[in-house]
Amino acid sequence: MKTIKNVALATLALAILSTSGCSRHSTKEVFYLIATNVNLPYWQTAAAGFNSAAAQYKVTARVVGPDSYDPAAELDALHKAIAAKPGGILISVADAAVVQPGIDEAVNAGIPVITMDSDAAGSRRLYFIGTNNMEAGRLGGKRVIEKLGGKGNVVFFTLGGQPNTDERLKGFKEVIATRPDIHIIDVVDIKGDARNAFDWTQSAMALTGPKKIDAFICLEASSGKVVADAVKRAGGGRLVVAWDVDQDTLDAIKAGTIDSTIAQKPFTMAYFGLKMLDEVFHAPPKQLGKDYSADSFAPYPAFIDTGTSLVDQSNVDLYIAAASDRSK
């Protein structure tokens, strides 16, 4: 009888709390997602994940950052977010040398920061959520070796100084180094503008003989489709490997103008990121700025890998269907 009474009292207490408006979450709790090139499909997908988690928790989500690849403007957006004193910040680091001081400033101000997609490992952020970019590069490198038959000339399109693309390039190089007949002709910094990749590819397609480029490899999301278009205009016959799964890239794989792409999970990164920031906000650690990577009893991981896969014509329909389901 006593147990029944205790259960009844507990139920009544919960009912009182729920009707009095007392709950863990509130729209007054604000969380920021900060990135560059925020209008790209990749970041629109991430924003959808961030907003989805915010809607579930009934907190406020704000997605900010420059429309172009501009690390200085990203740092400015970070400073403005710090001034707003939010519950937490999730940030993709365009250039660690530029943005890291701002991350440390936020943590020193008592604002938890988690990095996603692109890390600043030397900063005071709590941890990183995203792709194992070295492993993703290795995955792509194996595909290139397979499709080229172990020999040929390749060029990479990248974003210079961005930690995630640097790691991807390392992974590719590690695998390609095992095949001495595959030569890296150039690593092109497109400086955040896919038109630079298009122009470079157009010029390269005129090269013949020992200088012929056999494979164009894109280490970021925006250049895959335009590189494939440039190759197609010049007659095709070259390997194009892209990055990420925006609709244009998936359609190009379906059509055969892009061989394959490396798929990441930006929705998952941002969705999980907001939930983890919320947890830190409501249950803050004793030392926010501590290096938990050196603590075997840390309450946080050093890295959460959201997964990577290779998409080609054998499985592209699955990704197209998933994108269609999401848009309904």
Characterization of this structure:
The structure is a single chain. The protein is α/β, with parallel strands linked by helices and 328 residues long. The protein has two domains: 24-131 and 266-290, 3-Layer(aba) Sandwich (Rossmann fold), CATH 3.40.50; 133-263 and 314-318, Response regulator (Rossmann fold), CATH 3.40.50. Helix content is 46%, strand content 17%. The chain is built from eleven helices and twelve strands. The chain has helices at residues 2-19, 41-57, 71-83, 96-108, 133-148, 163-176, 194-204, 224-233, 247-255, 266-282, 316-327, and strands at residues 30-34, 60-64, 88-91, 113-116, 128-130, 152-158, 182-189, 215-218, 239-243, 260-263, 303-305, 309-311. The strands form two sheets. The protein has a six-stranded parallel sheet with strand order 2-1-3-4-5-11, with helices on both faces. β8, α8 (224-233) and β9 (239-243) form a beta-alpha-beta unit. The radius of gyration is 23 Å and the shape is elongated.
Radius of gyration, Cα only, in angstroms? 23 Å
CATH superfamily of the largest domain: Response regulator
How many individual domains?
Answer: 2
Task: Round the mean pLDDT to the nearest integer and report it.
Answer: 92
Overall outline:
elongated
Strands in their spatial order, largest beta sheet: 2-1-3-4-5-11
Number of E-type strands: 12
Structural classification: alpha/beta
N-to-C SSE string, H for helix and E for strand: HEHEHEHEEHEHEHEHEHEHEEH
Terminal Cα span: 51 Å
How many individual helices? 11
Identify low-pLDDT runs.
1-22
CATH class category label of the largest domain: Alpha Beta
Sheet with most strands: 6 strands, parallel
How much strand content do the residues show? 15-25%
Please state the second-level CATH architecture of the largest domain: 3-Layer(aba) Sandwich
CATH topology of the largest domain: Rossmann fold
Q: In which range does the helix fraction lie?
A: 40-55%
